[in-house]
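cron nightly-structures :: item 1 of 1
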Amino acid sequence: MAVSINIAELLKVLKKTPAEQNIMLCGKHGIGKSEILTKYYEEQGMKVVPLFLGQMADPGDLIGLPEKVNNSTEFLLPYWFPKDGKPIVLFLDELNRARPELLQTVMDLALNRKLAGHSLPEGSRIISAVNDGEEYQLTDLDPALVSRFNIYNFRPTLKEWITWADVNGIDERIIHFLQTKPEFLEGEAKAEIESNGLDKTPDRRAWVKVSKLIKDEKVLDEFIRKLIAGVVGVKAAGAFFLSLSDDDIITAEQLFNEYAKHREKVKKYRPHELAILNDRICMFIDNDHMTAEATKKSAENLSLYIDDLLLLDNHEGCAYFVTLISDSHPKFVTFISKNLLKSFMLLYKYVQGL
């Protein structure tokens, strides 16, 4: 059984693993494997070449076409092969969807860093991705090939995706929905299978598509609901629309700017709603939405919020707020220590006494 890693741990794996060791990532489609790899290595100045092995018909698609040279056969270099001698990152996607004859070519590539006699430039890396799950049509991998890779189950956390979504402008309605209904992030809540067998379920990539579809739509009507259902499935779309009719939890910006206006509403929040609000507060500060001019007023409002958590004797809300003060949220920790240390210490002592 392979070890599971999240996004932060994946970045550490990429940094720590020597170039001559190959990496295999196992996970569902649409969870950001290729995007993360591309961003990381391009920041290191390396070109990432994605090859979708499941779409290749025979080894010639990977190694190039043969030609006759001096009464012998040689293979033309494929279009992607580096001709400048600079190392590349070869990303072999859908490895366990490739035809068996293609996998024999990958074996030589993974073992000897050669393709039809041509060596990859020194320092090049080979990373593969495989899909796991009963819903995929997969090819069994030879144990000898598997042994050429360091294998990790890639399991990004909900919190990592929420943070990414906030930074990258994903529609707030989607972020709020997935905070309250995390089971809809990656297809665990499956739609009913239609008679034609085309079962559509949500994933991270699909929610990004939905965000783009509703970007300029202030009011989402029945047609938009159908549009969204075609991206994430009927069940996820229905749950998303249902969430829009609920009394929404206030945003961090509302808390920081005008907490007094929302105070009575917040006092009625249930534990899971307070947890979502705590996450929003932390994320707002960690993602640099706080301006220097607003710091004093924001600190005062956050102090009032902490006071209310204590007065309400809300065990869960207090405890969860304290857990957010960690190495995972350095900017949030700095903000609290500079502006709200006294309030936080009261909160901490309360939690210690539970």
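cron nightly-structures :: done
Residues 189-196 have pLDDT under 50 and may be disordered.
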